[in-house]
């Protein structure tokens, strides 16, 4: 199919761009720089090892310093154990099979640790993730080949716009008291759909709650296992937890992004550990390791009989490990068969433990952030797809501008929402924001259909407070500065903290203390501006009592989160009216919808208003009496 040929071509472009970026980064940086970028753990200590499937060796390591640094070493990613004595020569590749806190397990493509591993200066480097691209490429090829055959072929043709979707319009559903009207409609649409249903969930509208109830209803209706995926481990964790709390038997493939006993209990490792046959496997592994250790005691210089004895010991270890593999597979199959819902990332859905499982329904959450080629991995395992998300928030991260420009940034959610409006239900009632914070976003993105629930619509920090403020820095001389490829505006940042300090003083007068101070997000689209803001926060004495309630980060990192107060530092201020990626109004939709009670946007209207979106927002703030000039705050 031409449809998939184009996607394959775009994926190839993206893969090459991604790989070249990785190579450039790895080849031009030191281990300390890679560590700071989240690509390395160094130094590490080996805490244990055991034989694994296929006679590979699984090694548990712990990072012993720089434990506060964030990193990208996650379940399923390729990585390499290296010695910094000679990192190009002394290295063994493998796959991260578990990561929690400052420990991880890596299954190495060897059956014994190399001699250099005993000499210290060890580390783990993230490798380029060829596997994910291979899985996506394979899925696209399979989809292209399957488009003309059976139920899967029909699903593929519907999702690519060649066939029309069908719905069981006569379906009678039981009301779910905990859901509002639009949420009920979404569940009904999901149950009635034969091929595709789309749940469009704007910020704060209870999309996760709706999906959980829909999954429960699908299990009652179809009596079949359901696959639920999301592009980030954080989103998978949230759904896994909520589905489990709803009483469903959930199997989380991969290991959670955050440490939680409840989440850990849902993982395959945890469920296997509690299985009746696990004791037998542990004993077998112990035997295999003993035989292997005995074999390793032989020196390199030995005669024929010693060589034969060594071989016999290795053979016995391998025989036992085959028995272990068979027993583990039995347990895996048993655990998988009992699960009602399997949760994973799209690539994780093809993990060897669940690779061959088929489903009636596949649910893809946060589909607005999911790369389409990745979505086809789980889709090929089902007969019906539910796409949930919001294509008016952040789109997938794409490295290649060319690939993005030519269609890779266009998600399956967006395509199907446009193709089949009859299959889309918009969740219309939101439970997060004051109605004035909500309304601008509703007007611009959601056809003015959103409404605020009674519990939040008039919620303020204190009586007569302004829920929305735009502070205009035009004419103040707060000019942006270029910092590498990013922009900064130190004077705007300094003004923000002066304003925030005054707000903190006002809140104190209203009875707020460090015990009940509102949660605050200070966000900006620019990483370097975030660095400036974070540094200036340290030097804002009036705010130090409340610093534990204050988060400073990029807009992208805040998708899915909310705070009582949100400050947005727009940063750009120049006579040319250049606004860079501020022109991506979906990013600003995310930024403006994080606030529950108060939104403060600080920026230069003369620069921003080159885009109608921003001039409309300035006008909107004026209507609410929320437009202020920075000159009005000259005294603070």
Structural description of this entry:
The protein has 636 residues and is α/β, with parallel strands linked by helices. The protein folds into 4 domains: 91 residues, Beta Barrel (Elongation Factor Tu (Ef-tu), domain 3), CATH 2.40.30; 205 residues, Rossmann fold; 56 residues; 202 residues, P-loop containing nucleotide triphosphate hydrolases (Rossmann fold, 3-Layer(aba) Sandwich). It is built from 20 helices and 23 strands. The protein has a 7-stranded parallel sheet, sandwiched between helices. It has a 6-stranded antiparallel barrel with strand order 1-2-5-4-3-6. A 6-stranded parallel sheet has the order 20-19-21-22-16-23. Helix 1 packs antiparallel against helix 3. The protein is globular and about 90 Å long. Keywords: ATP-binding, Helicase, Hydrolase, Nucleotide-binding. It comes from Dyadobacter luteus. Belongs to the DNA2/NAM7 helicase family. InterPro entries: AAA+_ATPase (IPR003593), Coronavir_polyprotein_1ab (IPR050534), DNA2/NAM7-like_C (IPR041679), DNA2/NAM7_AAA_11 (IPR041677), P-loop_NTPase (IPR027417), SF1_C_Upf1 (IPR047187).
TL;DR of this structure?
This protein is of the alpha/beta class and 636 residues long.
**Share of helix, binned:** 40-55%
- Give the N-terminus to C-terminus distance in angstroms: 64 Å
Structural class: alpha/beta
- Strand sequence of the main sheet, in spatial order? 9-10-8-11-12-7-13
Strand portion: 15-25%
Remind me, CATH topology of the largest domain? Rossmann fold
The backbone outline, from C-alpha atoms, is globular
Poorly predicted runs of 5 or more residues: none
CATH level-1 class of the largest domain: Alpha Beta
Q: Total domains, how many? A: 4
What's the pLDDT, averaged over the residues? 93
The CATH architecture classification of the largest domain is 3-Layer(aba) Sandwich
Helix count? 20
- Main sheet, how many strands, which sense, barrel? 7 strands, parallel
Radius of gyration, whole Å: 27 Å
**CATH level 4 superfamily of the largest domain:** P-loop containing nucleotide triphosphate hydrolases
Query: How many beta strands in the DSSP annotation?
Result: 23
